[in-house]
Design brief:
Chain lengths: 345, 345
């Protein structure tokens, strides 16, 4: 299969992108197509002394920057690495797209160029959520779209479950709905409706999950609207960073504590790794008609390599096709559900 | 002035309640009325050898439990410590009420018995939010009411600001709106509308605040709807606890790290104190026509004492009266606002 990598997206592109591709090529057997300015990418490959035949360059002369307006950039920069890469997926010359570029542009571009999977109302950016001391979960919606409806949350749960099962190899992923309390009666009218729908969906729905339990790995798929998802991701980061800073300042408080800190260096280092998004292999844009993985804008080669590795099952396990099939099954469930309502009326 | 304490509310009532009252009496000059089963409270006072004249007992034979349905309990248990205490505030024999009882019942009871301040659409439970290594903020809405409207958030900001200024002595408190990004254009239609309203309100509105910045003390008053407020409070607790557990497990990993941990004991202890809600003197129910402070159900004497101390400025600084006046001023702002709209039409 052909993995397509956005060579120009991200703060350290193309250097770290190319480096990550070279590292990944040693671990997988698939072809990697790096899209971007040919001379720059070739120069990076030369610098690394790459001689193999797995990595190919696809020339694209434009770059979508972080400052670009997403819709305009996708429409106007037709020779950008992102648009060219997404078109390769659409045309079938590429099987999966990995990019560290402008998030908004990647989401918009995926929708516009690849289109939605039939039955999906709203494609969505998911994010791997690091659970401390445990396997990570996936959070959907991480993309902070505007107001969500209950059926969007149903889609999020279904797609997140399929992704976790087939890409992360998590068997029978537990799908949880972020809510005020565990009881079915809790929450807004929207979450109550989402609860009812998720209960009927072909997923392992474990019910409402309180925010307190999210970092403890209470579920494999964390379902919430984009506003709440944004709060969860950013607050987790903010609290973790604040605590680690506080711990650091306490450790530096005295000579004795500094000595102790020195003794703890390996432990503190392994602690930091728990929060390292780079380990997690990218965030999928779920619901578009082709596999796309978003990596962080500040990704280094390590993150690029891990995302490329995860992109293999994302494509080979036919995640997009499974979502399509599940949406058809889901329609039956929803139709039956509506019939029930009409009988009761 | 007369401070009214719910002697029977909380997991460790009446013991810890009475103990906290006795401790507070040594620090303040005001009278404390403990409401509850007279014999039990008297027995606790005797046990502590209390001989002073500052503490009084008001007999109430019923108790509202954590399992009681809030509305039913307030309506039916008219001789409960909570209902008797709230009635003392209404009748003016008490100046401020402190309770560690059933949160829902206390919010409902405050609304039903004290009523709303004129102009306030929705009274709300606020919560002190511990910022790591910094002075705490206040978060409104912490009570997880159902869907909020933009004008509710305006009220939250205004009331939270008045509370922080007059009870916590924070000068010109910074009011921030939890949102997806700092730009005015970010968020849902509701938060965008709330932004416009808060900008015109007589508060020091610092604009949108991202969740990442909340634990760093980005604002003194954290404004958000009850769903998001619940997520912020519980997730902060969950992340903090998970990290501290992880740190602990890392420290216990080897003999060397155990030794280091022993050396760090005082630092680790001071770290724990940063998260100690007991230090913060209770959460106000803002917008009801009388000062009410909610303390945690698991409060010990320490928390009771701190809440009683904070209840003094809450009453003496006329916070309720200032909120009433500000709502009148606010109406002028909103009216002018509406006039502007009609001119533009």
């Amino acid at each position: 299969m052909n993995i397509v990598l956005d060579g120009m997206g991200g703060d350290y592109a193309p250097h770290e992108m190319v480096k990550g591709a070279v590292q990944a090529a040693e671990l997988i057997e698939d072809d990697i197509y790096i899209v971007g300015k040919e001379d720059m990418i070739q120069a990076e490959l030369n610098k690394m002394g790459y001689q193999g035949e797995q990595i190919h360059i696809v020339n694209a002369q434009e770059v979508i920057t972080m400052e670009d307006s997403p819709v305009k950039a996708i429409r106007r920069k037709s020779d950008s690495s992102m648009v060219v890469g997404l078109n390769m997926i659409k045309e079938g010359t590429g099987d999966v797209f990995v990019s560290g570029g402008n998030t908004g542009a990647l989401v918009v571009g995926s929708r516009l160029i690849l289109g939605r999977i039939e039955g999906i109302d709203r494609p969505v950016l998911a994010s791997v959520y690091p659970c401390m001391g445990k396997e990570p979960s996936i959070l959907v919606d991480a993309g902070a779209s505007s107001e969500a409806k209950a059926h969007n949350l149903l889609e999020y749960g279904l797609m997140g479950s399929i992704f976790m099962e087939h890409v992360w190899g998590r068997s029978n992923p537990r799908v949880g709905l972020v809510n005020l309390g565990v009881e079915e009666s809790k929450g807004t009218s929207m979450t109550k409706d989402a609860f009812k729908k998720l209960k009927k969906a072909p997923v392992n729905f474990v019910g409402n999950v309180e925010a307190r339990e999210v970092p403890r790995g209470a579920c494999d798929v964390i379902v919430c609207d984009g506003f709440v998802g944004n709060v969860i991701l950013k607050l987790t980061e903010g609290v973790a960073m604040s605590i680690l800073e506080l711990v650091k300042s306490k450790l530096m408080a005295s000579i004795k504590s500094k000595m102790a800190a020195l003794m703890l260096k390996p432990q503190l280092k392994s602690l930091k790794k728990e929060f390292d998004y780079e380990e997690y292999g990218g965030a999928p844009i779920l619901g578009v008609d082709g596999p796309v993985l978003k990596i962080h804008g500040s990704s280094t080669a390590n993150a690029v390599r891990n995302a490329i590795i995860k992109s293999v099952p994302y494509s080979k396990e036919n995640v997009v096709e499974i979502i399509r099939q599940s949406m058809l099954e889901l329609e039956e469930v929803i139709e039956k559900d509506e019939e029930e309502y009409s009988i009761n009326e």
